[in-house]
Structures are given as structure tokens and as C-alpha cells.
């Protein structure tokens, strides 16, 4: 059976999207992000410059394409978690698992080059912060939706979702910063060693554990706003869904 024209166009578009990403990231690795232009990417991929922009609005989007799972990962984990598991617990488990995986990724040449390239470019650092904020908004919307489904449009529930998301993702960011401090302080010859990676994980783990334990205490505060108590009671003692917590894209 011959594929419909719409299906062929969709497959071709997806191939072009992936090919542009691969070509661009190869050029970034070879020359450095700031030395590569969108025109360079278009020429290397044998497409028009406008084709690149049709798929990726900015050069920064090309750099992070396929390498920023934290934008959609926590929210997707919440949405796809199994019945009887906690939204907060699952988002926290996703963030913890992926943050603790970073030192191992940085031991690989590709991971180290990605991190170094990001740190070397002011525009990439700005874009990374924008992506983090996008991830925070996505997680807040996912948390709000799951709680509204359970208790309805209760006053203040959106604020609880926004604060919960901000706390979870900020903790992940701080833990990553602690890991990078450990790695940068190590002897250059040992930075890619297993021992340094383990020390980075050990130093970042307390912050990750502390924020996970803190949510359960909200319902125990007599002065907590009603929406905070209601959400904390909903989430109390619910386990995470380990299946979606360990997947980059559940």
C-alpha cells in the first residue's frame, strides 16, 4: 500500500528536523557555538537558510535540541504516572534520577563538550535559563491539572502548583551547581574519574532529599493555607512511579 502524501511529507519533515540537529551539533562541536552561523548549518545540510529557521527558530534551539530532557521530562512524568502514585513524588523522583545521572554523563566526551560549550557562550547560558523556566511552567501546569482533576478548582491550587514546580526544579538546578563545583575543583586529570563523579553525587544528594521530604510536612502545619494542606494531604504517602521517573521521555 502506498503511503499517503501527508504521511510522506510528515516523514520527510521529521528526517530534515533530525538531520539539521545532527549537522548543527557536529559543527558546534568542531568549531564552537559562536563560530557557527545558521548559514553554515544550512550549507552543510544542503538546505536553504529559511528551512533551518522553519525547524528551529534560533541557533540556540539547535544547540539544545534533543539535549534538554528537563524541559518536558518532569511534566510528562506527572501526566503519565500510574494510578495510585504521587504527582510530586514522581516529579521529584524524575528530577533526582536525572540530576544524579549528570556526573556520569560528564565523564563522556560528548557530555563534557556540551557542558563546556554551554558555559563558554553567554547566549547559551541565557537560553538555558529560558528553557528551565519553560520546564517550570510545564510542570506547574501538569501539577495543577492533576490536582484539579481530583479536587476541582479550589482557590489557591494554581499557586501551590507554581510554588511546588519552582521548588522542585530550583532544587535540581542548585544540586547540579553543587556537582559542577565539585567537578571543577578536582584535579583536571581526575575530573572524568568515577571517584569525582561519585563525590559530586554525594554532595548534591542532601538537597534533593530535603526537598522531597519537605512536601509531606505541609499538611502538618496549622497555619498552612487550605490549598497547601489539601494538596499535601492528597500527596501524603503516595509513592513515585519509578517507571516514568527513569525515562527521559515517558
Automatic annotation (TrEMBL):
DNA-binding region, residue range(s): 37-56
Pfam families membership: TetR_N (PF00440)
Query: What is the protein name given in its UniProt record?
Result: Transcriptional regulator, TetR family
Superkingdom: Bacteria
Q: Which residues form the HTH tetR-type domain?
A: 14-74
Q: Which organism is this protein's natural source?
A: Klenkia taihuensis
Fetch the PROSITE patterns from UniProt.
HTH_TETR_2
Q: Which UniProt keywords apply?
A: DNA-binding, Transcription, Transcription regulation
Query: Its Gene Ontology molecular function terms?
Result: DNA-binding transcription factor activity; transcription cis-regulatory region binding
